[in-house]
Design a protein that fits this description.
With about 675 residues, this protein is an alpha/beta fold. Among the domains are: about 80 residues, Nucleic acid-binding proteins (OB fold (Dihydrolipoamide Acetyltransferase, E2P)), CATH 2.40.50; about 190 residues, Rossmann fold, CATH 3.40.50; about 150 residues, 3-Layer(aba) Sandwich (Rossmann fold). About 40% of the residues lie in helices and about 20% in strands. A seven-stranded parallel sheet has the order 10-11-9-12-13-8-14, with helices on both faces. Strands 15-20-19-16-18-17 form a six-stranded parallel sheet, sandwiched between helices. A five-stranded mixed β-barrel has the order 2-3-4-6-5. Strand 17, helix 18 and strand 18 form a beta-alpha-beta unit. Helix 8 packs across helix 24 and helix 14 crosses helix 25. It starts with 10 loop residues before the first helix and ends with a helix.
Length: about 675
Amino acid sequence: MELSDLHGIGKVRFAALHAAGIDSLRDLLYAVPMQYRDLGNHVAIGDARAGERQAMQLHRFGEPKLFRHGKLSRVTCQFTDETGEAQGIWFNQPWMRDALMKKQQFLLYGKVERNGGKVRILNPSLEDALRIVPVYRPIDGIAQKTRLHLVEQALPFVDSLCAETLPESMLAQYNLMPASEAILCLHAPVNMEQVAEAQRRFAFEQMLLYQVAVREMRNVRRVGHALRIPHSAEEMFWRRLPFEPTNAQRRTLSEIKEDLVKPQAMARMVQGDVGCGKTAIAFGALALCAQTGHQAALMAPTEILARQHFESAKQILAPMGLQCGLLLGGMGLRERREALTSIKSGSWQVVIGTHALIGESVAFQNLALCVTDEQHRFGVAQRTRLLGKGGDIAPHLLVMSATPIPRSLALAMFGDLDVSVVDELPPGRMPVQTRIVPQERRKDMYLFLRNELARGSQAYIVCPLVEEDEADEQRKSVESHFEALCRGPLKGIPIGFTHGKQASDEKAAVLTSFMEGKLRALVATTVIEVGMNVPNATVMVVENAERYGLAQLHQLRGRVGRGKGESWCFLVAKENERLRTLVRTHDGFEVARKDLELRGPGELLGTRQHGVSLMPSGVELGNVKLLAAATQCAEQLAGDPAQSKLYEPIRARAISLMEKTMRDVSVS
């Protein structure tokens, strides 16, 4: 049976699946759900928990109402059960009014909010059965119900389509589900415990393959450029900066210099807390390399961050006689042609850019150092592709991690890298005052915020975190919150908004206006988590803070406190032990340790890194014990010649996946 034989697949849907990388029944089954709607555990209105997505069986009370505000709309409807009343709200879905008129009884699934004694369900879906419903990554032209129907037709063939990929002895030793059984449990689970066990099986396999691939990369540390760096070069660099470096900064740059002068290519990660001065260290490395007559490149994850680095380079490196250039994906044809010529000729000694640096048309004359900023936004394949620009002699590699990670976890996840820790903050940096704000204190917070803005300060307002498949809901959340602030507590103050669905030029215009001070406040998603450096911003407001990991909240808090004045971070949420950690400490490594203890490494490291199918995702990471077991398994297999028959097939798969990943990396 072929994919095209499934009932409900025509040319249009077949093309849509192909565009999403699904070309066979096996591909369809291995494209597992990204989350689940547990409708079997529905709750009464009186038991609904704020901030969570829950299912409720409700009776419609009265008729739905449609309100319009220009291009925006809102549908509201009252519902009841034996424990109370709740209001359903649908933003920009005017058709819901007619859908709700068709019957009286509904099974709703959505995010719950409580304000005093009132319960609201935001943008709930209308469900038809009490069961666990898989939710798949969206594919244009394939509705979720259609996807479920296609998968149901393929599941009877799971045993023949999903052959076992791990040795039976390994399944037994680590108590893992067989592959076909795990696939079945992921697509048609009886309970969430089955889902957890199936995810654990594939998490272990993903971690094992990653560790094996990392070992291969580590074992082939290639011949690199032994740079002739003068003994006094470090001190001369530090003297050119307008501040005194910390001992940690000096130590880290010295470690980098020791690597750069060796004939083996450096592979080092620098990680440290928000504001510890990692960027200055990166520029020190760029300067040490470029002064030897070689080229150095810095790759940033966003155009805004790349532009900021370029402006810093002109201030720090240009006075040293170093020519710096910028390469971005959105450049005009003439500007891009000139940039490519300057890179190829070597006239640009330091090149700063985004993913555009790994494009096919980019050629360096003598690239000797690659720096990737915000390591958690890049993957092994992308940095490997950048290294490939160095030709036969491998460039040195320096990656900068914006997320403090406990050293043991960093070594396990980034085993192909040496690790330097910048464990000291510059003197005089004022800690951000952090406060938990319950709903009943919201008015007081807005009064404080308005006073701060009136004094000339700026503020970020981060909207609630939503799942990746809810991009439209995220957009609606940002826009509706923006409008509510414009009409209410921030009326008359110039504010803007941005989110992931916004056009890139529109987003850039908003962010530029905020950085230039034309906008006093910015309503946004976590798009502002990295790359925003606005010293005048003194207030960070995070709505529904309980939905974020501590490490991410710490990163958001780091967007303020960059100037000379006192700064504040308000976490709008009900107080709990997790959030009290942020109030108690400003140490990012302490925050990371607490996050690891409470939520596991998945939340600490964030979502799947772009372009790295080998890197385990947040869901897959599970827990530290599983990661340790997979790491130990890889070491045992690789180190025992007697197990070569078990190891070689796994090694071959890891290398194949790594090569495929590198071919699939976006070069836009």
